Inverse folding.
């Protein structure tokens, strides 16, 4: 019997309650598929600031290092918003975690079931069959991490701040591998997004992607789009895309747009895969819902646990090679939602249910 060893970082707000649902779902599939779950909790984000004085304590990093994957909730909330930006839970926990484990490949599926098209702000005639796209975002390079990064007072009394956007060909190629594999497993269409009419990094990005895809996956239909146009096209006709592929900051922005057109942040999962392999010879990864901590509904049994449950499914697939179990969880979520069980944040037509109703509906489908 194989043992799935992962760190559980529930974080703040609705994090703990939706994590409980994901763990309960995992327990059911573990029994069915004959694998053992071995997980260890650790503090991250605001709760870690409260308990240990920092958002990502060394002890939490240790728990993650001893695991084969990280199941992450969400971090942040009003209580910590007055801290200096560098110490705030989102920035002080997530960015160092990405760096520490070289989590360079961020996979964000944008999925809207046809039954939920009313939940999207797009007119339903633009998305008659829902939405099914994926965004592959480079996560450890670009302007987020480039040096120099600083703020200084100038001699003339002015103040200057600098961020630096850097990309190496090798960094572009390794994320291109993930984009290629994703497109090969889906509709075979890859749209690479850049700003090559302005940025040097984008010129390198476009050249590298063009040559790399031609060499490694000539069967794919590769297109290129400027990021401003891509933002517009996503709102106009999202299903013209199959796999959207882009650098760190553009991916941050486009993936939020993708999330909102998909109707509910409570439905979107994500995977951030590392360069290194875990003890099972699969990629080490961090798996987290795309939505935030939703402090306004925390602790009220109202949060939608689907994104956390779907993130757990992604963990099974990518870091543990448990494809069948992952598929079963995804199908169970789909049938729970299509069957009418919806929590407040994806409700329309008066179908609001609770976190625990949603959990029961998912588990019933397993
Ligand atoms: C995301 C978030 C993070 C990012 C923030 C919280 C640092 O917006 O995961 O998309 O910008 O990458
Ligand atoms: Mg973001």
């Amino acid at each position: 019997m194989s043992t799935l060893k992962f760190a559980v970082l529930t974080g703040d707000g609705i994090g703990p309650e939706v994590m409980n649902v994901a763990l309960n779902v995992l327990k059911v599939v573990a029994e069915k598929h004959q694998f053992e779950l071995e997980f260890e909790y650790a503090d991250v984000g605001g709760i870690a600031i409260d308990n240990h004085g920092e958002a990502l304590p060394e002890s939490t990093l240790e728990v993650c290092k001893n695991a084969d994957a990280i199941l992450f909730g969400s971090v942040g909330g009003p209580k910590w918003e007055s801290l200096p930006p560098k110490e705030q839970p989102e920035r002080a926990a997530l960015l160092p975690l990405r760096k520490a484990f070289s989590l360079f490949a961020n996979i964000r599926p944008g999925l809207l079931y046809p039954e939920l098209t009313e939940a999207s702000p797009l007119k339903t005639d633009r998305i008659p069959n829902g939405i099914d796209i994926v965004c592959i975002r480079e996560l450890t390079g670009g302007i987020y991490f480039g040096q120099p990064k600083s703020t200084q007072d100038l001699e003339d009394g002015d103040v200057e701040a600098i961020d630096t956007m850097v990309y190496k060909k090798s960094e572009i190629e390794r994320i291109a591998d993930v984009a290629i594999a994703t497109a090969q497993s889906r509709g075979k269409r890859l749209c690479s997004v850049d700003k090559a009419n302005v940025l040097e990094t984008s010129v390198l990005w476009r050249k590298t992607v063009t040559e790399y895809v031609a060499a490694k996956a000539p069967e794919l239909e590769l297109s290129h789009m400027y990021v401003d146009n891509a933002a517009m096209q996503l709102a106009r006709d999202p299903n013209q895309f199959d796999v959207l592929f882009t650098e760190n900051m553009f991916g941050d922005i486009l993936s939020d747009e993708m999330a909102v057109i998909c109707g509910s942040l409570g439905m979107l999962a994500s995977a951030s895969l590392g360069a290194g392999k875990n003890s099972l010879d699969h990629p080490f990864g961090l798996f987290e819902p795309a939505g935030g901590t939703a402090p306004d509904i925390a602790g009220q049994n109202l949060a939608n646990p689907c994104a956390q449950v779907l993130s757990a499914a992604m963990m099974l697939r990518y870091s543990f090679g448990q494809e069948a179990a992952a598929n079963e969880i995804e199908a169970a979520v789909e049938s729970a939602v299509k069957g009418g069980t919806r929590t407040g944040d994806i409700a329309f037509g008066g179908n609001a249910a609770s976190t625990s109703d949603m959990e029961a509906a998912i588990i019933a489908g397993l």
Remarks:
- DSSP finds eleven helices and 14 strands in the chain.
